[in-house]
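The pair is quoted verbatim below.
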Amino acid sequence: MTTLQSKDQFGAVGPSGENGSAQSGSRLLRRRMLIGGEWCDAASGQTIMVENPARKEALGEVPRGAAVDVDRAVAAAGAAGAAWARIAPRERGRACLAIAEVLEARQEELARLIASETGNAIRTQARGEAKWVADVFRYFGGLAGELKGMTLPLGEAMLSYTRREPIGIVGAIVPWNAPAQLASLKIAPAICAGNTFVLKAAEDAPLAVLMIAEICQAHLPPGVVNVLTGYGVECGEPLAAHPQIRKLSFTGSTAVGKAIMRAAADRVVPVSLELGGKSPSIVFPDADEDWVVEGVIAAMRFTRQSQSCTAGSRLFVHADIFETFLAKLVARLEALKIGDPLDEATDIGAIINERQFKKVCGYIEEGLRRPDARLVTGGLPPGEGPLATGYFAIPTIFAAGSNDWRLAREEIFGPVLVAIPWRDEAEVVRMANATHYGLAAYVWSREIARALRTAHAVEAGWVQVNQGGGQVLGQPYGGVKQSGIGREMSLEGMLDSFTVTKTVNVNIALPPPVQ
């Protein structure tokens, strides 16, 4: 039996459950913030309770950080900045590789913590996320040698070259749906590029991020990585507005992303924003097959309770196969098991919290009231029985003829899919693009020319053809329109998001010295 964190860093904690589970039920997992290499409480002494959404019970407790704590973290990052930037890039890369080794060794422990605080099923989601975190640090650690500039041919009298230099202090905010994955995608490239870092974790799911911080701290100088916990208004806003932050990186809702951008505009600070989505999934008539059904379920992220900005939540199925395809989809979807995220048999876990649970139920209630919408499967969750012990939502599909109603326009961030029939290719592309979002899209057809034509016509930053899985390290990932600015997950993303280019011109044709 193991504990999730060391007592000397985090204070007294109760034992984890079997195999590193955060489910002992005896004592809360009490964690502190990381500021300047020290584990700290909030200056106010206040805390936030972290809930296990599958059990509706307290799981942990973290500091309730505020503006004064942001000031401390930014000051620590500033103090560490000059020395960290002077370290050779390959040495910084080696630190990331060392972090990756520990993350890989502890990935099961991290997975169980992710499952406990997010409600995401360990087999279908949390274990893959924990593996991803180690892969991210290893990937960017290996790219450290690519932080290089270029020379320009300006003749024999002039040496002109560029340097990739760190921006400075990076401020970052991550959401709760994939907290470890998203934190790693910001920390690893930022520090590899020579920046120092202040991250605000999501108040609903900060524990896995703090575990990553613990592992980072063992391999980095104090102050290079700082992690705060707190609410958005009290902690996130002061971080976004802090005058010493030189770059802001945010993943979350479009509404909050706009606020981040406004805060950055006052100081002309560059931003990277990965925001919301209402992604289309377009099924052509030659794709009425089981493998496409599996792909649509994956694209909709049903096994993450559809709490994903890339969820293919608008399903456009050709009218000729509309009913037969939905029948296959329902049969497969209803075979998925909803339940305890730590149960290896579970496919679908719990919604993150009561607020989001009620929001999802509200959308379902609206769909049930709408006369021109047909409930295909799912509906409201039961009020009693095993699923009532947590925030468990039932995967729900509505069939409708309109792409204009609220359930087809707004990001629900829950397992509610709207299926819409179509006949004309140009019309389905028009409907797919009739949104202010543009993050992801999915196209399904055996006729590759048609599929690629559609993929090119859809307004999205990331399009998958005949597959519905997740992103791949090394590919630039991000959105268009109100789904965001900038790219992540790649060398280009690291260079564009976390470095600035400096040009140096040297006159090498000096006149002879005066005798």
